[in-house]
Design brief:
The chain is mainly alpha-helical and 608 residues long. Helix content is 55%, strand content 3%. Helix 9 packs across helix 17 (438-467) and helix 17 packs antiparallel against helix 19.
Length: 608
């Protein structure tokens, strides 16, 4: 995930109020521009870019310290920095909206549009409320980062330990216990979240949006209502494939757990190997093809070679340099966090940071020697190389073409982590034959398709919360209604409004929009297919790796350098030749698996 404090700062920050448009402003409001003249637009943007860059640096530095040294003091420091950043960004956005549609040059008008439309949280004009909003965000982020499931006062499990148990344990009673324990982390921030919604909506309305959700949807170079319809269209393309996968897995889990998993209906969420049931790769052993379908066990390879931390990150860097990108700076290796410290609490959720809008890029990730983390580090480095590619643009434009692009670039690279790639980098002696790739495709489907389903849930829930369609007294009920609708999962125990299960997912208390991940999981397959074609690859898409392809690297570098200086369809066309996001690349990638799944599901119930 990217940490974009100020749009210039880092691509993944959570406490930050803005996720795209440069940083915030000074203690006072920016001067009101005089409408109608290009020189005034130029002066306004010069001031905005300079102040946002400076305040972005301060907020990024404070955010980094807060997430890597969680204390009340660092929380307060980050809150103050974010308050300044948020207030300035909101003020600049309000001033940008006062310019006419023809004011300034084309490039300047693009900056004005981006400045107006890329705010993640708009601070209310009232200084006390703006301060309260910043403090709420910092405290919710800190509460999540220090959250634990305590079985006894002296025996507590952090998210790393909980993740490991859900991934490896097969005792349904233990899984249920740990699942319930972690989800209790959300309840303490429920009251704060209600107030956050009130304050963020007030700020959004002050800059002309109906609510915070409408503000988020406005950033995609199309009307907000059209964007919602686009998401429905894309999910409609994908849903038949997901239904086939869901039915297959449910049948296998029913064989394993008996009546603990119904033959029809939703799957209990605690039995899918992941806290949020968004990735099913950890239960591959329970659903592996009986006829010999195989996958490469990267977990075992990494463990046998005792690879961890920065050593795993080096593989990701070498992938990008093989495409023609420059190596990461020395400061990246000196300042990043690769392993969870033993002496303090940190937010372990992986994130890629652009601290200064120039060369100080970093990774914050508690890397384990697993296939999932090996893939994740390739993903996170995609953010860092993207950040470096657009660093010469004005601060306001230092972001992805849209937020889905930023996530998709790293995931595109992760799709190239194939057996052939592992052979080239010395982690595998020989790639398995392609004639029996169902196991590889099934494992990849377990990684991607459940995430797409979950990706529809998080912001569908928040959009409804922000709009008032879902009031506080229905927060948890609405959450599980959406999870059943899209994911086909159910809680292992009854839930009530004393719970706040959305708060047990990092992106909710951290206020990181989630639709970017849904888009990214579609875009990455479009990007992958296009870059494989540029590399001259002719085989099945699931075996294509663009590692060492300078032609692919050149096309990728040109697209990354655009940042958000052009509407995203222009960037999509530069990379793929298409101007519409299309899920058919996913369907093509998994076509052999879909045929196989339908054969396995013959006579079995499909859907829930």
């Amino acid at each position: 995930m990217t940490k974009l404090l100020p749009r210039v700062c880092f691509v993944c920050a959570a406490t930050v109020i803005l996720s795209g448009a440069a940083s915030c402003g000074p203690s006072g409001s920016p001067p009101a521009p005089a409408a109608g003249t290009s020189p005034t637009v130029t002066a306004f943007l010069t001031d905005a870019n300079a102040k946002l860059l400076r305040l972005g640096l301060e907020a990024s530095q404070a955010g980094w310290v807060q997430e890597t040294y969680i204390t009340p003091d660092t929380e307060a420091i980050a809150a103050r920095a974010n308050e300044a950043y948020t207030k300035a960004t909101t003020d600049f956005a309000k001033q940008a909206a006062k310019f006419g549609a023809t004011d300034g040059s084309a490039d300047e008008r693009r900056q004005l549009l981006v400045l107006r439309n890329t705010i993640t949280v708009a601070a209310p004009a009232d200084e006390k409320e703006a301060s309260e909003l910043a403090q709420i965000l910092a405290s919710m982020n800190a509460a999540y980062g220090s959250g634990k499931y305590c079985q006894t006062p002296d025996t507590c499990l952090d998210i790393e330990a909980v993740t490991k148990i859900l991934a490896e344990n097969r005792d349904p009673a233990r899984l249920r216990q740990v699942w319930e324990g972690w989800h209790a982390v959300g309840a303490p921030v429920r009251k704060s979240y209600v107030r956050f919604v009130e304050l963020s909506n007030k700020g959004a309305k002050e800059i002309g949006f109906a609510d915070t959700g409408a503000m988020w949807r406005s950033r995609y170079d199309m009307p907000a209502e059209d964007f919602g319809k686009e998401m429905d269209r894309l999910w409609g393309q994908l849903r038949p494939l997901y239904l086939s996968l869901h039915a297959y897995v449910r049948a296998r889990l029913h064989q394993k757990y008996g009546d603990g998993v119904p033959a029809e209906g939703p799957i209990p969420a605690h039995l899918l190997g992941n806290i949020w049931a968004q990735n099913w790769t950890n239960i591959y052993d329970l659903a592996a093809p009986a006829d010999g379908g195989r996958r490469v066990s990267l977990d075992k390879i990494l463990a046998d070679r005792k690879l961890a931390g920065a050593a795993i990150a080096k593989y990701g860097e070498r992938f990008f340099t093989s495409l023609g990108f420059d190596p990461l700076p020395k400061t990246f290796w000196e300042r990043s966090l690769f392993v969870k410290p033993a002496d303090r609490e940190v937010v372990c959720h992986p994130s890629a940071w652009d601290i200064d809008g120039d060369l100080d890029v970093r990774i914050k990730m508690c890397i384990d020697p697993t296939e999932e983390d090996f893939s994740t580090i390739h993903h996170e480095l995609g953010h860092n190389f993207y950040q470096r590619a657009y660093r010469t643009l004005p601060a306001i434009l230092r972001d992805g073409a849209n937020d889905g692009f930023h996530e998709a670039i790293g995931d595109t690279i992760a799709l190239s982590v194939t057996p052939e790639y592992l052979v080239k980098v010395g982690l595998l002696d020989k790639a398995p034959d392609t004639s029996n790739d169902i196991g590889l495709l099934l494992n990849r489907a377990f990684e991607k398709l459940p995430f797409l389903a979950f990706g529809r849930v998080v912001d569908q829930w928040r959009w409804r919360v922000f709009s008032g369609e879902v009031p506080p007294q229905r927060y948890n009920q609405a959450w599980w209604e959406l999870r059943q609708k899209y994911q086909g999962v159910a809680p292992p125990i009854p839930r009530s409004e004393s719970d706040f299960d959305p708060g047990a997912k990092y992106h909710v208390p951290a206020n990181v929009p989630y639709t970017r991940y849904f888009l990214a999981h579609i875009l990455q397959f479009q990007f992958h297919r296009a870059l494989c074609e540029a590399a001259g690859y002719k085989g099945p898409l699931n075996r294509c790796s663009i590692y060492e392809s300078k032609a692919s690297g050149e096309r990728l570098a040109k697209t990354l350098a655009l940042g958000s200086s052009r509407p995203w369809p222009d960037a999509l066309e530069a990379l793929t030749g298409q101007r519409q996001i299309d899920a058919r690349a996913i369907l093509d990638y998994f076509a052999p698996l879909k045929k196989w799944l339908d054969e396995q599901n013959e006579g079995q119930p499909v859907g829930w």
